[in-house]
Design goal:
By secondary structure, this protein is mainly beta. The protein contains 3 helices and 30 strands. Strand 28 and strand 29 form a beta hairpin. The radius of gyration is 20 Å and the shape is globular.
């Protein structure tokens, strides 16, 4: 169905999902909107059937609060990150833990799959974003350009771009084709997969004075982990630097790509920005929220942008003009997740008992 008209966005249906034993900190929908995943301070991840309003799986492996979750685009995997510094990859059908990605040295605040589901990015309180290859469980690159917490991350639809947002008020835009194409086109031995920035051994320093010849190779996942935790990898001077997008005056909370490769950013300065990712310029500043903006998402067509704020409203914006089209009551104190359906309806979810609003 076309999204040329914002029909059905004045009617609200509220569903509640109760089961966690502590506050819900994050949630995510499958792309077909049949399943909802929630992560909580009780260190459990729950998978819900949105039609029958019941839990399908309760997944427990984290030892501290779960901070972020994301479905793969084919809906067969879930990634979760937590205050225990770990990223877990789960099987949606069975609820079984598939992989553990170790290496961050502080809480993992954001996680996202590439559309190919070959790669995952995670952002952390350790000021880094890590680009992981799922086949090996090893990091392809450590992105350490931010000066504060990496609060959000997102891949573009074609998988060529990665955006990260931070508490340093900046969005960094990476062209990751050079990283991921190598992994796609070659069945590389794990020993070749951790020269993260193709640096010379003289450019690698270790806090534990590890021999550079030993540190430039990864013979197994544990060596990958050791390298990620113990070394500071300098950027190769030949590598393309990240494009810096700066307008916001407070923490960046969310980033989202449109199908046209526009980028939206939501900030605790109460504003949103829409960016041209080719030129690196801000096309529109969207003002109107009276509280921290916590989430943003483009409609499937890319014509509309939805945003959610601590002011307990969801706003719908025209992407081309930047004009505000609708303001909706959120019916929840805080929203962690927004998602447009194929027929143009909007789903939102917040904490506590996970109140879900279908507009």
């Amino acid at each position: 169905m076309s999204e040329d008209k914002l029909c059905d966005l004045d009617k609200v249906t509220v569903k509640s999902f109760v089961g966690h034993h502590d506050d819900v900190s994050c949630c995510a929908f499958t792309s077909d909107w049949k399943l909802l995943a929630t992560g909580a301070d009780d260190a459990t991840l729950r998978l819900w059937d949105m039609i029958e309003n019941k839990a399908i799986h309760t997944m427990a492996a984290h030892t501290k609060s779960i901070k972020c979750i994301c479905f793969s685009y084919n809906n067969d995997k879930i990634a979760s990150g937590g205050a225990d510094w770990l990223v877990f990859i789960w099987d949606v059908k069975t609820g079984i833990l598939l992989q553990t990605l170790k290496g961050h040295v502080s809480s993992v605040e954001s996680v996202c799959f590439s559309r190919s589901a070959l790669f995952v990015c995670s952002g952390s309180w350790d000021y880094t974003a890590v680009l992981w290859e799922l086949k090996s469980g090893c990091p392809l690159r450590i992105l350490d350009d931010h000066k504060s917490v990496v609060q959000c991350c997102c891949f573009s639809h074609n998988g060529d771009l990665l955006a990260t947002g931070s508490w340093d008020y900046k969005i960094l835009l990476y062209d990751i084709k050079e990283y991921t194409e190598i992994s796609r086109s070659h069945d590389v031995e794990s020993s070749e997969m951790t020269s993260y920035h193709d640096v010379e051994s003289s450019e690698i320093t270790s806090s534990h004075d590890v021999e550079s010849s030993e540190m430039t190779h990864c013979h197994d996942v544990e060596r990958c982990v050791s390298r990620l935790e113990l070394t500071s990898v300098k950027r190769n001077k030949r590598s393309q630097k990240a494009m810096v997008l700066k307008y916001h005056t407070s923490n960046i909370k969310a980033v989202s790509f449109s199908c046209q490769n526009l980028l939206a950013s939501a900030s605790w300065d109460c504003n949103l920005c829409i960016w041209d990712t080719k030129k690196g310029v801000c096309l529109h500043v969207l003002s109107g929220h009276l509280g921290f903006v916590q989430a943003c998402v483009f409609s499937l067509s890319g014509f509309f942008l939805a945003s959610a704020s601590d002011d307990e409203t969801v706003k719908i914006w025209d992407v081309e003009t930047g004009q505000l089209l609708k303001t909706l009551e959120a019916y929840t104190d805080e929203i962690h997740q927004l998602s447009f359906t194929e027929d143009g309806k909007l789903l939102s979810s917040g904490p506590q008992q996970v109140s879900l609003c279908l507009y």
